[in-house]
Amino acid sequence: MRIKGQEHLPVKGPYLLCPNHASYLDGFFVYSSLNLNAAAQAFFLGYSQIIEHPSIKWATKLARLIPIDPGVNLIDAMQVSSWVLLNGKVICIFPEGKRSIDDKAGEFKKGVGILIKELNVPVIPVYIKNSHYSWPRGLRLPRLCPITVNFGRPFLLEELLTDNGKGQTDDYELIVRNLREEVLRLSC
Asked: Which of 54, 173, 158, 162 shows the shortest CA–CA distance to 108?
């Protein structure tokens, strides 16, 4: 595994980490790429059906995993995330809301835009290269492949609210569209 841009990680929170999502292992890739300061402050949002599976549930508190199920506890997860950020910690949220089917990043959901705008916290785009090949959909077990985790520079709310002629009227959608572009820019 190669790590790029680790120097962009602030010494302390609050801030959001927003990586693309193509593998069950993405959270592990991001966590193992963090420096000690960031790792000690990091919490991860994850789909409750996976996090609350008996084989993983025992580690939920230890690994600081926040379960989220958009149909059941979205508001609760957003409130917990807000509390964590307001207490100076780091949250890793996968803005696509699910693993992509292939190695292409899907559209980002508005939830991350809501957190960024309402809490005015910096966000660091992250691109995980080749994670799709490590454990794609349909494969029972992971396989070895070279992985690169690329951290971008921190972005502030004002930077993500620039329209650049896109004609976007909803601030949350504008934030996530610009954030997605920054994540994709890191794929090069």
From this structure: 173
Could you write out the three-class secondary structure of the chain? CEEECHHHCCCCCCEEEEECCCCCCHHHHHHHHCCHHHHHHEEEEEEHHHHCCHHHHCCCCCCCEEEECCCCCHHHHHHHHHHHHHCCCEEECCCCCCCCCCCCCCCCCHHHHHHHHHHCCCEEEEEEECHHHHCCCCCCCCCCCCCEEEECCCECHHHHCCCCCCCCCCHHHHHHHHHHHHHHHCCC
Predicted TM-score (pTM) of the model is 0.86
The reported pLDDT for the residue numbered 76 is: 77
* Look-up of token digits 């620039």: 162
Give exposure, 126-163, as e/b (b: 16+ Cβ within 10 Å).
bbbbbbbbbbbeeeeeeeeeebbbbbbebbebeebeee
Task: Retrieve residue 164's tokens.
Answer: 């650049």
Collect the ranges in the chain with pLDDT lower than 50. Answer: none
User: What pLDDT sits at residue 104?
Assistant: 79
Q: Are 94 and 112 in contact (CB under 8 A)?
A: no
Domains of the chain, CATH where assigned: 2-185 (3.40.1130.10)
